[in-house]
Amino acid sequence: MPGHIKLVKGLADPDPTEFLVPSIECKRADQAKVYDTKKSVWIPDPKTEGYREGLLESGDLEDPASKCLVVVGHEKFTHKASEVGKVNPPKFEKCEDMVNLTFLNDASVFWNLKTRYQAKMIHTYSGLFVVVVNPYKRYPLYTHRVCKIYLGKRRNEVPPHLWAIAETAYRNMLQTKKDNAMLITGESGAGKTENTKKVI
């Protein structure tokens, strides 16, 4: 359980909703985000080795050799068009499956994972895979209450979760009578062992 929620014997498991789907307030805030379909872009940030969002002032994104002038706050940066990526519309904020993103670039993928993580939603689909970002905290995501949500459901019927993938593999094994395998990979400390335990 999360640090502020103590597990008491006999009490029901805590509500996992806030850890699985974005709240209405969160969705409204995302929709109010400033966005320009032609000018909103990502540029590399050498300080953080990440990306910054800015507005394209001049340049042609279609020509990889073109020089683009991008404004971030009060600063102006010049980058090659090949280094500049388009920002997805606000309706794709905290997208459950990154395959659905209009502009699939590194910055958009990192931004989606970051915003979902900040909203305590650590599971995100990427096509056939689920990306799980270790929160280094205990969230009520692996309780009996959550298990019942995913039991017998298809992947597209429920929010992203490791158990949705495990349930799909299990149902496929029962239907086809063939072995199924799951690949759980990540860096040291990413949570591979814990997730393997949850799948089993």
Strand order in space, largest sheet: 4-3-2-1-5
The strand count comes to: 7
Span of the ends, CA to CA: 20 Å
Mean pLDDT: 89
What report would you give on this structure?
The structure is a single chain. With 200 residues, the chain is an alpha+beta fold. 20% of the residues are buried. It is built from six helices and seven strands. Strands 4-3-2-1-5 form a five-stranded antiparallel beta sheet. It has a two-stranded antiparallel sheet with strand order 6-7. The chain is 28% helix and 18% strand. It is elongated, with a radius of gyration of 20 Å.
Summarize the structure.
This protein is of the alpha+beta class and 200 residues long.
Give the arrangement of secondary structure elements.
Layout: H1 17-20, H2 24-31, E1 40-45, E2 50-58, E3 67-72, E4 75-80, E5 85-86, H3 106-118, E6 123-126, E7 129-132, H4 144-150, H5 162-176, H6 192-199
Antiparallel strand pairs: 1-2, 1-5, 2-3, 3-4, 6-7
Q: Keywords for this structure?
A:
200 residues; 28% helix
